[in-house]
Amino acid sequence: MLPQRVLVLGVATGLGRRLAVRLGRHADFDVLGADREAPPEPLVGVSLAVLGGKTRTSAHRSAVHRLLLDFSPHTVVFLSPWHDAQRCEAAPVACAAQFADAVRATARGCLGLGIRLVVHSSDLVFGGASAAAPAGSAGGGLFAETDRPAPATLAGRQHLAAENAARGAGFHRWAVVRTGPLYATGDADDPLARAASGEATPFERAHAALARPYTHADEAAAGLERLLRHGAHGLYHVAGHEALPPAAFATLARSAAGLPPLAGGTAAATRATALLTLRAETELGWRTTHRLGEQVKGRR
Questions:
Q1: What is the pTM of this model?
Q2: Which candidate, 103, 295, 98, places its Cα nearest to that of 180?
Q3: pLDDT, tens digit, for every residue of 143-166?
Q4: CATH superfamily, with its number, for domain 4-298
């Protein structure tokens, strides 16, 4: 059987590198990774295309369309550095152009060529509900794929716009995988690195009481791989089971690294955007393998 050809857009991101290498280990995948610049290290088993320029330029989008024609992938996986909420909030115009608009253009290309499109999204499409009161169908700030998104931040609105744009790839030819904030990515905005330095982003300070389902990059990549293998479509949640405010996550990470707690303690969570992962577990066989504390200690 011929291998499944997968084009990973955003291969220079931490999640992109992990997914591409994970797929490249297997003979049943033929992986081409593309990004504006090359990844910081070689990726074994992965072909690379450096697009250059900015995502919103016509030249960049023409280059992506040329890849669709030349590589003729079965599936495009769109991974964006704008998944980090702070980056999106700090540069809203660029976030809109280089994320939601870029997904829309990619979906149009996929529709015309019969290519499946998978987009990585965020828990922030939900504005957050009281952790002590019913929220979505699961209640208690826990949201299922069937719950109606209601973003309360710019980053959440852009992710929702990207999700809607992904549907433009055609009926049964789109999928969206939502995660919480990714950690252990190795990127400059990795929450583990910020925890070690004691820094917090303006977004984290503004939403100090928002508990989010921090997700290890390896487990997000595993969820995407399983979705590709199953040929699944629609919405899937792939996220850690423990939702924590930013300072609580930082305290946990610092403890695992043998560092003292941050001064000032941690704010109690008043809202949560936890994601119910039952669909990914039952349909894709995906699992979180450890509790968050064990992941921080064992996978740094």
A1: 0.92
A2: 295
A3: 999 999 999 999 999 999 999 999
A4: NAD(P)-binding Rossmann-like Domain (3.40.50.720)
